[in-house]
Amino acid sequence: MKRRPNLTATCILLCNLLGLFLLASWNDIWARLGLHFHLPSLFFLFAALRLDRRRGILVTFLTGLFIDAIVPGPFFGFHAFALVACDLVAREWGEAFRPLRGRRPLLFLQATNATVLLLLSVWRLVTVPAEAPGLGGHLSADLLASQLFLLPAGAWFLAFQRSILFY
Fold first, then answer.
1. Is the pLDDT of residue 20 over 60?
2. Which of 3, 58, 70, 109 has the most neighbouring CB atoms within 10 Å?
3. CB neighbours of 62 closer than 8 A, spacing ≥ 6?
4. Using alpha carbons only, what angle is made at residue 146 by residues 42 and 70, rounded to the nearest 5 degrees?
């Protein structure tokens, strides 16, 4: 079987965009209850481990820009740069996550998601200090809901991306 890295990168980018669409739809449903699931770390690990450096960073950066178009951040490109930083860390620790099964990749996704969410929370608390007392409970509920939802969503999304490459 001949490897076609551009087609693989395109498939992974399209999977990421489909995942973003599904996550945005999921958030629209849960917004009525006041919850927002923020899962940026869901979209970088597969590209970091299955693509070469140039294509993987490009796919991750483009996915981060799409996240920035959907979710407000400190500046346009925040999610893109955060995901590229996570991509580079995952490439350095890549051998630990190579199988993409088990607990290691999910724990790494949990840690990177919590880091990005905490950076966004600090930014929001600093830029809107008058609403800080009311935001505390809302941000912690979103953080907890996102971290809990990331476990099944991360396992499913990594398996989905792996299976889509067989076609």
1. yes
2. 109
3. 13, 80
4. 65
